[in-house]
Write a structure and sequence with these properties.
heterodimer, A: alpha/beta, Rossmann fold, 2 domains, 3-stranded antiparallel beta sheet, B: 212 residues, mainly alpha, 9 helices, 0% strand
């Protein structure tokens, strides 16, 4: 099992929370001999917001990929009480097809996630994130910031109970970041959120738990 | 029904991507016609028809390889395979949808290749057509899985042929046998058996290919 106190600081949610949605104990990830994530303990209760910070290479993305089920732990245990239908993951790549339009991309994921009233939901999200006018354009023609907005729409499309957002403010302009602030504030308390950022002050008022990786 | 709906959704996505990008199908068509033209001039005058049938299968296998090398390119370029893997659908549906799309591309190529072959080398009989259809199913089933494995590799251009060609040998044996044998039935049965066994294996193992 992994070592404790190996240079990371974890401030976790309330001890003995009734039902932790994410619970890790001595969670560690290695790729061969390279350690991608130092041992970490955390517990996040339902409706909590965990803000993960740390320098480049500290393991933020690795931790979020572990929580999302995209990677398997090398050591330690990880329990995530959400199945794939309840999970919304935003990574560094938006998982969007460049040759499909915004609507077609969202429609694809909406069908796979069996989103009820899919078209209305897609329209509402595109409107909310300021992409309605560009809905018929191919994603390949989008700017980096528009792609990030579209990726956020994809992540939120099926109203996931657990949101895992890896640096969601990346590439967003002030307006886009403001829209995301509003969205996160609305979701706070309703959804469980794990969010990594280089700008912890931005999400400070949302956080119920913090994890600083080193 | 929801499983088949997912497969249809994913296959339709690939067909739409190809209609938009036109990356794969035109290249496959050009390649197979060019190959048959080259074989037409390379084969000596009065050469055995059996040799010509073999060349048809060489052309089809390498054309399929060309298409398979591009099969997962949209997912690789956008990282979308992880998005599909995270979706709550059965992961084998991702493989089946992709294999169905590749089969559609290969079938379109064969609709051009078989008349072109007949033009250059003589007629194509029903057994050959049946052999091509059955072999195409096997090529798409096995090739789509191997292409997904190779897509994760930096040396995918090398890995895919190295993995695919040995597994395609039984398909070539069955296909050529169906084309030239006076009793094509047992070769067609062999191809059908290959399709059944390898399709089940690929269907069951795709989950492990896309999971860490």
């Amino acid at each position: 099992m992994g070592r404790r106190g190996s240079g990371f600081l974890a401030v976790i949610g309330p001890e003995g929370a009734l039902q932790s949605v994410v619970k890790a104990r001595k969670l560690e990830k290695r790729y061969g001999s390279k350690r991608a994530l130092r041992p970490v303990d955390l517990a996040l209760e339902r409706g909590g917001v965990l803000v993960v910070t740390g320098a480049n290479g500290s393991g933020k993305t690795t931790l979020l990929r572990l929580v999302a089920g995209l990677a398997a732990p090398t050591r330690g245990t990880l329990e995530v009480r959400a199945d794939r239908a309840e999970l919304g993951y935003l990574g560094h790549e938006g998982f969007l097809y460049r040759e499909l339009t915004a609507v077609e991309n969202l429609d694809l994921y909406g069908r796979l996630y069996r989103v009820p009233e899919r078209r209305e939901r897609i329209g509402m999200l595109l409107e909310r994130f300021g992409l309605w006018e560009a809905r018929a354009e191919r994603a390949g023609a989008y700017s980096r910031g528009m792609l990030q907005r579209l990726a956020l729409c994809r992540t939120l499309l099926h109203e996931p109970a657990l949101l895992v957002l890896d640096e969601p403010f990346t590439a967003l302009d002030a307006e886009g970041a403001g829209l995301l602030d509003t969205q996160l504030a609305e979701l706070r308390g309703e959804r469980t959120i794990v969010l990594s950022t280089h700008d912890p002050e931005r999400v400070e008022r949302l956080a119920t738990a913090r994890l600083a990786l080193a | 029904m929801s499983y088949l709906a997912d497969v249809a959704t994913l296959a339709r996505k690939d067909l739409r991507l190809e209609l938009r990008a036109r990356d794969t199908l035109p290249a496959m068509l050009l390649f197979v016609v060019s190959t048959l033209v080259v074989f037409h001039f390379a084969l000596p005058e009065g050469a055995d028809e059996v040799a010509a049938q073999g060349l048809l299968w060489v052309a089809l296998v390498f054309t399929a390889l060309l298409g398979l090398a591009r099969a997962w390119a949209p997912e690789r370029e956008s990282g979308a395979l992880e998005g599909l893997v995270l979706a709550p659908c059965d992961r084998s549906a991702i493989w089946l949808g992709k294999a169905a799309a590749v089969f559609a591309f290969l079938s379109a190529v064969e609709l051009v290749a078989l008349p072109a072959f007949a033009l250059f080398f003589g007629s194509v009989d029903a057994a050959t057509v049946a052999g091509v259809v059955l072999a195409s199913i096997g090529i798409c089933a096995v090739g789509t899985l191997l292409a997904a494995m190779a897509a994760a590799s930096r040396t995918r251009e090398l890995v895919l042929p190295l993995l695919f060609l040995p597994l395609a040998i039984p398909l070539v044996v069955g296909g050529v046998g169906a084309s030239v044998s006076p009793e094509p039935g047992r070769y067609l049965a062999f191809l059908a058996l290959y399709d059944a066994i390898f399709s089940i294996l690929c269907w069951a193992s795709f989950e492990y290919v896309v999971s860490e």
